[in-house]
Amino acid sequence: MHTRTLPGNHGAVFARTLSALRDVRVRSEVRLTEVPAPTRIAPYAAALTADVIDVSDPEADLATGRFVVLHDPSGPETWDGQWRIVTFARAELEAELAGDPMLGAVGWSWLTESVGARDLTWTAEAGTVTRVVSESFAGLADREASVEMEIRASWTPVQGEIVDHLRAWADMLCTIAGIPPLPDGVVPLPGQRR
C-alpha cells in the first residue's frame, strides 16, 4: 500500500477501507490476492488481483483481473469524487464469438448489470471492451483460433461501500468466465480445501 501523510483523517478512512477489502468475502470460485498498488496516481492506493477458477479443476483459470482502489482527498475533477476504482478483467471466450458485432456492448453490460444488481451507483464511469483474436500459422497451424475479451473500466463509487463495488466486479468476472450468477439469497458452498 502506498500512502503519504496528508492533513485530516484521510489515512484512517483509507485504512478502514483497506481492512474491509482484506476481509471481503466473494464467491468461492474467485481467488483474491493483494498486490502492490500504483504509487503515482493518488496519495492512497490498494490493488487486488483475482483469478476465477473452475472448482472441478482448481489449476485452471477461467478469468483473471485486477481491481485498484484510489483515494485522493483533493477530489480530482475528472474523478468527480475522492475515490476511484480502476479495473481490468480478461477471459477466453468461445471462438465463434470473434465476429459478433455486439460483443463489446454485451461485455460492458455485464459490468453495468453487476453494479446495478447490488444496488450500487457510480459516476464518471469510463471503459473499453476489447476482443483479441489469435490465429496460428505454419508450425502452429494445428492450434484452433482463440478469442479473449478484456474489459477495462474505471468509475467513482457514489453509493455503496468500496467492498460492495469489489463484489460487483467479482460477479462480472464470474460472468465473463462463464459461471452463471447466483439467485438472490443463495450462498455458494465453499470449494474443496486442499
Give an account of the 3D structure.
The structure is a single chain. With 194 residues, the protein is α+β, with helices and mostly antiparallel strands. It is built from three helices and six strands, in the order αββββαββα. The chain has a six-stranded antiparallel β-sheet with strand order 1-2-3-4-6-5, with helices on one face. Strand 2 (44-54) and strand 3 form a beta hairpin. The longest helix is centred in the middle third of the chain and has 15 residues, at 103-117. The chain is globular and about 60 Å long. It comes from Humibacillus xanthopallidus.
Number of helices: 3
What oligomerization state is this entry in?
Answer: single chain
- The computed structural class is alpha+beta
What is the averaged pLDDT score? 87
Q: Which value, in Å, is the CA radius of gyration?
A: 18 Å
Show unreliable segments. 1-7, 190-194
H/E element sequence: HEEEEHEEH
The portion of residues assigned to helices is: 10-25%
Order of strands across the widest beta sheet?
A: 1-2-3-4-6-5
N→C terminal distance: 29 Å
Strand content: 35-45%
Biggest sheet features:
6 strands, antiparallel
What is the total tally of β strands? 6
What is the general shape?
Answer: globular
Integer tally of domains: 1
Protein name: DUF3000 family protein
InterPro entries: DUF3000
Pfam families: DUF3000
Organism: Humibacillus xanthopallidus
Secondary-structure map with pairings?
Blueprint lengths: L9 H14 L6 E6 L8 E11 L2 E15 L11 E11 L9 H15 L3 E14 L11 E14 L2 H15 L18
